[in-house]
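Work Package 4 report. The design task specified in the project plan requires that, given a folded chain encoded as C-alpha cells, an amino acid be chosen for each position. We show below one input record used in the internal validation round.
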C-alpha cells in the first residue's frame, strides 16, 4: 500500500486523531505563536507557497494571511481526515487563496519550478517523508530562485546536515527557529 492509499485508511485516520487534537490544542497555541514562527520563513505577499504536511492547519491560516490575496497557499497532507478538517477551517475563514490537497508529498503532482517557497513545518523527521525522496521532489517543484523553510519538531541536528549533504540547497539563515535554504 502506498502513502496515497494509506492516507485514506480508516484505521490510520483514527490512530492519528489524538495527534490532530494535540496539533491544534490551546496548550500549543499558548506555548507557540504560529505567526511568529512563520515570520522566520520570510514569506512575501503574492508568493505561491506549498505547506507540506499541513496536519490540522496550525500554520495554514496564518501562512495564507502572510501571502495575501495575490498569492496562493497549497496546503498538502496525505491523511484525508486532516485535509477535510483544514478545508472546513478555510471555508469558515472565507479565504480564497488556499488550495487544500490530499496527496503524498513525495510525489506532489505539482508542475516543475512552480513554487516560490516550501514550508516543512513540524513534518521532518517523519517515517513517511524520507529526506532522500522528499528533497529532490521539493527541488523539482521550486522555482530557480525558490526557497525552503524548515521548522523542526523534534529538534534534530542531523536534519540540517542531511539537507546540506543533499547538495540541492544552500543554507541562508536561521530566524525564529526556522532554517532557511535557497534552491541550488
Ligand atoms: C507531526 S504532523 C505536523 C502537522 C503540522 N505541520 C503542524 O505542525 O501542526 C506531520 C504531518 O505530516 C503528514 N505527512 C506525513 N507523511 C506525509 C506525506 N508523505 N505526504 C503528505 N503529508 C504527510 C502527516 O499526515 C501529518 O499531518
Amino acid at each position: 500500500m502506498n502513502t496515497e492509499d494509506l492516507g485514506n485508511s480508516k484505521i490510520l485516520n483514527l490512530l492519528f486523531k489524538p495527534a490532530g487534537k494535540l496539533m491544534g490544542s490551546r496548550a500549543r497555541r499558548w506555548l507557540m505563536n504560529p505567526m511568529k514562527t512563520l515570520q522566520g520563513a520570510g514569506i512575501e505577499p503574492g508568493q505561491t507557497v506549498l505547506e507540506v504536511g499541513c496536519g490540522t492547519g496550525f500554520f495554514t491560516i496564518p501562512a495564507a494571511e502572510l501571502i495575501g490575496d495575490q498569492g496562493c497557499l497549497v496546503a498538502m497532507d496525505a491523511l484525508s481526515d486532516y485535509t477535510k478538517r483544514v478545508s472546513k477551517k478555510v471555508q469558515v475563514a472565507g479565504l480564497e487563496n488556499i488550495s487544500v490537497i490530499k496527496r503524498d508529498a513525495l510525489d506532489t503532482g505539482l508542475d516543475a519550478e512552480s513554487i516560490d517557497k516550501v514550508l516543512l513545518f513540524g513534518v521532518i523527521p517523519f517515517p513517511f517523508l524520507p529526506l532522500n525522496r522528499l528533497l529532490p521532489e521539493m527541488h523539482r517543484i521550486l522555482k530557480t530562485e525558490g526557497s525552503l523553510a524548515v521548522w523542526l519538531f523534534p529538534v534534530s541536528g542531523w536534519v540540517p546536515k542531511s539537507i546540506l549533504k543533499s547538495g540541492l540547497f544552500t543554507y541562508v539563515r536561521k530566524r525564529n527557529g526556522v532554517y532557511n535554504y535557497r534552491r541550488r
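The longest strand covers residues 142-151. Validation will be extended to a larger panel in the next phase.
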